[in-house]
Amino acid sequence: MGFQLEQSVSVDNNILLNAPLVSAFTAWLVAQVLKPLINLALTGRFNAHMLLTTGGMPSSHTATVIALTTSVAIREGLGSTLFAMCVIFSIIVIHDAMGVRAEAGKQADVINEWSRFLSDIHKDGPFKPEHLKTMLGHSFSQVFAGFILGLLSGGLITILMDLW
C-alpha cells in the first residue's frame, strides 16, 4: 500500500490574502506607530524617529511574532508542525528582545559614559566620543504589551479574513 496525493490542491498565490503575513505586518506597523504616541503621552514630546527604531513600548518584535503564531494557530491548528515552528521562533525572538538586546543596551550605556569621560580628559586630543544607541531591548511590560497586541492582531485579522 502506498499513499495517494490529493489531485485537487488549490494554492492561492495572492500575498494580500495570506492572513499570517498580513497579521504579522499589521502588528508590527501598529506597534511602531504606537511607540511615538505613547512617548508623546508620557513625555509631551513626539519623536518621529521612534517610528523606525527598536526598543520602546510596545515591543514590535513580540507583536509581530505573536501575531504570526496566533494566525498560524487559527489557520493550521495547534497540532501542526508550522505552529510548533512559530512557537519556537517566537520564544527565540522574545528571549532575544528581553535578554540579549536588553543587556547590549545596558553595555552601551556604560560605554557611552566612558566615552564622555574620556572625551573630557582628552579635550584637545584625537579622541572623538561616539554615542551608542541604548534603547535596544525591552522590559517585561513592553514585551507583555507586544504580546497582547500580537494576540489581538493575529486573532482579529485572521478571523476577519476568513469571513471575507
TrEMBL record:
Statement: the UniProt record of this protein carries the keyword Transmembrane: yes
InterPro entries: DUF212
Transmembrane segments: 15-38, 50-74, 80-98, 143-161
Pfam family, one: DUF212
Superkingdom, taxonomy of origin: Bacteria
PANTHER family xref list: ACID PHOSPHATASE/VANADIUM-DEPENDENT HALOPEROXIDASE-RELATED PROTEIN, ACID PHOSPHATASE_VANADIUM-DEPENDENT HALOPEROXIDASE-RELATED PROTEIN
Protein's name in the database: Divergent PAP2 family protein
